[in-house]
Amino acid sequence: MNRRSMQLDFSGITTYSAQNRHNLVRIDTLAVPGETPVPDWGSPEFDELVHRIQAAKEGGHQIILSMGAHVIKCGLSRYLIALMKAGYITHIAGNGACSIHDFELAYLGGTSEHVPTAIEDGSFGMWEETGGWMNEAIQQGAAQGLGYGESLGKYIDEHPERFPYREDCVLWNAYKLDIPATYHIALGTDIIHQHPTCSFEDIGKASGIDFHKICWSVAHMDKGVYMNFGSGVIGPEVFLKALSIARNLKYPTFDITTANFDLIDLGDFRRPLGYEHPQYYYRPRKNIVNRPVSCGGWGQHFCGDHQETIPNLWKKLCDK
Questions:
Q1: Which of 17, 231, 275, 319 is the most buried (most CB within 10 A)?
Q2: pLDDT over 90 at 1, yes or no
């Protein structure tokens, strides 16, 4: 037996309908801009960021928001949609989990299963509608030369009967507003990769198209803003590579604003760190806050819960 060539066959995997699943996040518990109380949070540096975002909007410059999946799981979708509709987000990006939670909210009205119990019997992530429909959408989109986010947005738009809650879907709203929603996939990390119909070739093609899209946005973000909410690896790594490509191609990208939002307190995040310091390996510190603005621009780290920071961003920008 040649052990180097052994692969596990997925064809016998059992999937389940998500219709009766218990969800930790539901449509009826999403925060509502203008109704849900906004917690008191802010700083002079935050006010400066708000000013820079306003200037970027007025100047027609790129305002890119990158996020981890907990932004959706914290029930903040409607704030992102409101910011997009008001012109304060020109490009929204995330990892695969962002797209999955967003997609599930659109068809199911709920998302976020209870993983500790589901992993015990192998039912974790084995949801027929999520895996079947998302993989179908990606495969259809890839065949048409569409990116991952656009494929999902188009699929939702073409099957309204399946998605009764699409008005609260971030990627569908981006699709309708002609705003790029790009998803940057690490293969094997998402529950739809467990589904028997998964095509890694099509996922790779669609996510590759999305990488070219975010490279375009980054290449045109001089005098613009890049914000990262809670993405510890994918967002910072994608941004740094896109920025290097843009500068390699001689796009002006030095008058930029970068901001990282996370729960971790970095203290003096501008001080040099050695290899022995754990924060040296925290990618957003290097890839978003410090390195991109080493030749100009302004980088900042904000310590706070998404349920505080994002509503306050909306309040400062939109709640006039």
A1: 231
A2: no
